[in-house]
Amino acid sequence: TCTNNQFLLPFNEFSRDPDALEVEADQSEITEKDNYLISGNVILRSNAHYLSADKVLVSKEDQTSKASGNVKYQDKSFFLTGSELNINKENDDLIVDVSNARYQEIETKANGFAKFIHKTPNNAFLEESTYSFCPINDNQWFIKAEKINLNLNNNKASARNTTLVFLDYPIFYLPYFSWVTQGRGSGLLTPGFNVYKESGNEKSDFHLRIPYYFDIAPDKDLVLALSYLSTRGFTYE
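RE: above sequence
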């Protein structure tokens, strides 16, 4: 069932004008220092971002926006929902901070919850978060981590203080874990272990094999394995 995923939010259209910020709301007012308070079914659209909320406070002076109440955010790579969301503009890039949020990466459909998310155009930093490829509201397995870094440019992710949870039961813990979110990537493969007997020996011995996969190119790869036989020592394959 994990392959039959759905999206956290319905897709919304962005503005077709690259220089425009389209605003829809029931009412708006100008407050002190040229701040704009927009309230009631608020929708903001640019050519790369969509935001809806019950209320949005826009500050022209420091280039920030604060949305509250039933917040829904979408850009070209991410969905976010939460009760409050802050947006800062730095060098024409939007920096999004949201607390107690649900999220989903659009391309991979990975999703989860996070106590805090700091998102830049190239990365998403998640604190006290879960991460899963299972369908929304049906996370039969997920990663629970203190910190997760999603690199949105190279489809790589890393997590610290990580626990793998299956059917609400913790399976194992890793202090650090990294993976490729989509496609192939270099890394350790599943280790192998078996028991054998040398000819003429009554005692059983064991063989441990740890393979590492190198993703060299779309048409080239290499597997290098370290093997240990209790009767012969280390060998390389």
